[in-house]
Amino acid sequence: MASETSVRKRLAVVLLVVVLLGAVPTGVAAQSESTVGGTVVVEEGETIDDLEAVAGTVVVEGTVTGDVSAAAGDVRIESGGEVGGDLETASGSVTIDGIVAGDVDVGAGNVAVGEDGTVGGDFTAGAGNVVVDGTLEGDAAIGAETITLGEGASIAGDLRYNGDLQGNTDAVAGSITEDSTLGFDIAPTLQPLASWLVSLYTLALNLLLGAALLALFPRFSDGVAERVATDPLRTGAVGFGVLIGVPILLVAAAITIIGIPFSIVGGFAFALVIWIGIVYGRFAVAAWLLGYADLENRWLALVIGMIGGAILAQLPFVGGLLNFLILLLGLGALAWGLYAHRRTPGAREPEHRDRIGPDEPASD
C-alpha cells in the first residue's frame, strides 16, 4: 500500500509540473516549432524557422523566417516582429504592427494592420471588423461588416471588398471593386469559437491542477471544502484580505532595491496562489452543494466544480461576479488551511480517501 501511494504521489507531482508548464507563457526555442500553450511567444531577438501553434495568445516579437499558422484567441505581430513567410490564422483577433513579408490569410472577429504594420504579399481577410492603417504591398480581398482605411493606410494593389467600406479610399493605388462573393458571415463566429477553445484549454488545465492537488494533499483539500461549507462568510473575508493585502506588501517591498527581486518572485508566486484559490474555490463550492444530496466524492466535486466554473465564466457580469466570490472562498480557505498547517507542522496526509464530509473516518 505504501509503495502504491508513493507511485501515485510521484505521478501527481509529474502531473502538477506538466500543468504549470502548460499554463505559463511559452517561449519558442526550437528552430521549427509546433506547440500548444496558453501563451506562445517568439521573444524579441529570437529567430525560428516556422511556427504552428494552438494557443490562447500567439505573440511574435522576434523573427519567424518561414510561415506562421495559428489557431488562437489572439494573434499579434508586434512592432519589431517579423514573419518572413505567410501568416495564416483563425483567431478571435489579429493585430499586425510588425512585418509579414508573405501573404496574409486570416479569419477573425477583428483584424487590424497598425501604422507600423506591413504586409508584403496579398492580404485576404474574412472578419467582423477590419482596420487597415498600415501598408499592404499586394492586392487586398476583404469581406467584413465594417472595413476602415485609416489616414496612414497604403494599398499598392487592387482592393476587392464586401461590406461597409469607410475612410481613406484614396489609399488604394489600384482599382476598388465591390465583390459580393467575398463572405464574412462566418467571421463573427470565430471570436466566440476561439473564446470557447481557450475556455476548454483552461478547463483542462484546471482539472489537471485540481487532480494533482487532491492526489497530493487529500486531507488538506478536504479541509478546504469543510471550511467553505461551515463558515463561508469568514472564509470569504479572509480571502478578500489576502487578495488586497498581499499586493500591497509586494508593492511596499518593491520600494527598496533589496526588495525588488522578492517582489518579482512574490508576484509570480501570488499569481500561482490565485490560480490554486480558483481551483480550490470551485472544488469546495461543488463539494458543499453535493453534500446536500449526500454525494461526498471529492473527484465528482472536482469535475462538477471545474465545469460549473467554466460555464459561469461565459455568462456576462453575473458569471464573473460569482466566480469572483468563489475565488474569495477558495483563497480564504487556502490561506486559513496553510496557517493552520503551519501551527501543526507535524500533520501528515493520509494515503488515500475518496469521500469528504464530517462523518468520514479520520483515516483509511
Commentary on this structure:
This protein has helices at 2-23, 187-216, 218-230, 232-254, 259-291, 298-313, 318-343, and strands at 26-27, 32-42, 47-48, 50-60, 63-64, 68-77, 82-83, 87-96, 99-100, 104-113, 118-119, 123-132, 135-136, 140-149, 154-155, 159-167, 176-178. It has 364 residues and is α/β, with parallel strands linked by helices. The chain folds into two domains: 31-188, no CATH class; 217-343, no CATH class. Helix 6 (298-313) runs antiparallel to helix 7. The radius of gyration is 25 Å and the shape is elongated.
Question: Topology, please?
Answer:
Elements: H1 2-23, E1 26-27, E2 32-42, E3 47-48, E4 50-60, E5 63-64, E6 68-77, E7 82-83, E8 87-96, E9 99-100, E10 104-113, E11 118-119, E12 123-132, E13 135-136, E14 140-149, E15 154-155, E16 159-167, E17 176-178, H2 187-216, H3 218-230, H4 232-254, H5 259-291, H6 298-313, H7 318-343
Helix pairs in contact: 1-2, 2-3, 2-5, 2-6, 3-4, 3-5, 3-7, 4-5, 4-7, 5-6, 5-7, 6-7
